[in-house]
User: Which sequence fits this backbone?
C-alpha cells in the first residue's frame, strides 16, 4: 500500500506518551496470551460496559495533529482514507458522516466503555465514538500470526471504523437491544453477523479507496485475507484449546471472515454486506 507522504487525518488522539505517574504497562508473558485469545478478534463485545454509560457528545474535530513517528503517520493516513470514502458513500445516500476519533495508546487508557488495555486489542466504543488502538498490537500480528504487510494493518483500522459506520446507521443499537432479549448462544450469533458485516464494509472501503487513490499494490488484498484467516474464531480456538466450539463464536470462522471481506471488495457496494438477511454466512 502506497501511503507515505499522503494526507493524514486530524482525528487522532495520541496518548502513548503518558505523563509521569500514569501506568503504561506493556504486554508480556500472560498479557500476550490474552491478546492472542481476545485482542486478535479485532474488536471486543463492549455491551457489558454500556449499561449506565450515559451519553457522550459526538467527537469534535481535533486541533492539527503533530505526527510524531511513522506508525502514527500510517494510522493517520489510513484513517483519512476511511473518512474520504465513508464520507462520500454517506453523502451519496443523503446522510452526513461524522468520522470517529482514533485513540493511540500504550499499555492502557480510559474509554467511555471502560478501561482500554493491551489485552483487549483494538476496539470501537460507541459511547464516545472512538476507536482504541495499542499499536504494539501490530507487532503481535506480525510475530505471532504471520499477518504481515501494511495492508494487514490497514484492514485492522478499517474494520474498527466499520463498527463506527454500523453505529452511525443505528445497526449496533438494534443488535444490542436484540442481544438483551436473547440466549447467550443467540447473542453470540448476532455478534458474528456484526463482525462479518464489518469485514464486508472493510472490503467495500478497500475497493473504493483504491479506485479513488490508486494506492493498492499487488499482494495487498491477499494480506487482508491472510489476516482474516488468522483471526477466525475456529483458528484461534484450535490454536489455543485444541478444540472448536461453534456456539461460542463471536466473530466468525476464518472462511467466513475471508468471504465477507472479499464480497465487499468485489462488489464495492455496502448493500451487499447485509449479513443479517443472509441465510448462510
Assistant:
Amino acid at each position: 500500500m502506497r501511503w507515505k507522504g499522503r494526507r493524514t487525518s486530524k482525528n487522532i488522539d495520541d496518548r502513548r506518551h503518558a505523563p509521569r505517574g500514569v501506568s503504561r504497562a506493556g504486554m508480556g508473558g500472560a498479557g500476550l496470551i490474552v491478546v492472542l485469545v481476545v485482542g486478535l478478534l479485532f474488536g471486543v463485545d463492549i455491551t457489558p460496559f454500556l449499561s449506565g454509560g450515559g451519553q457522550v457528545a459526538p467527537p469534535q474535530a481535533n486541533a492539527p495533529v503533530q505526527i510524531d513517528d511513522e506508525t502514527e503517520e500510517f494510522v493517520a493516513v489510513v484513517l483519512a482514507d476511511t473518512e474520504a470514502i465513508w464520507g462520500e458513500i454517506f453523502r451519496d445516500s443523503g446522510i452526513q458522516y461524522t468520522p470517529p476519533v482514533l485513540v493511540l495508546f500504550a499499555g492502557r487508557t480510559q474509554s467511555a466503555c471502560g478501561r482500554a488495555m493491551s489485552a483487549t486489542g483494538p476496539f470501537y466504543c460507541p459511547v464516545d465514538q472512538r476507536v482504541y488502538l495499542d499499536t504494539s498490537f501490530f507487532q503481535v500480528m506480525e510475530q505471532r500470526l504471520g499477518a504481515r504487510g501494511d495492508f494487514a494493518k490497514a484492514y485492522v483500522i478499517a474494520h474498527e471504523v466499520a463498527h463506527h459506520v454500523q453505529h452511525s446507521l443505528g445497526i449496533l443499537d438494534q443488535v444490542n437491544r436484540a442481544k438483551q432479549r436473547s440466549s447467550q448462544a443467540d447473542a453470540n450469533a448476532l455478534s458474528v453477523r456484526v463482525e462479518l458485516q464489518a469485514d464486508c464494509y472493510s472490503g467495500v472501503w478497500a475497493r473504493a479507496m483504491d479506485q479513488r487513490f490508486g494506492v493498492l499494490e499487488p499482494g495487498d488484498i491477499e494480506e487482508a485475507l491472510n489476516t482474516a484467516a488468522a483471526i477466525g474464531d475456529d483458528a484461534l480456538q484450535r490454536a489455543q484449546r485444541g478444540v472448536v466450539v461453534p456456539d461460542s463464536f463471536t466473530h466468525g470462522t476464518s472462511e467466513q471472515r475471508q468471504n465477507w471481506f472479499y464480497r465487499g471488495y468485489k462488489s464495492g457496494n455496502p448493500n451487499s454486506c447485509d449479513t443479517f438477511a443472509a441465510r448462510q454466512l
User: Anything to note?
Assistant: The chain has a mean pLDDT of 85. DSSP finds ten helices and six strands in the chain. Residues 64 and 252 are 38 Å apart (CA to CA). Residues 12-273 form one domain.
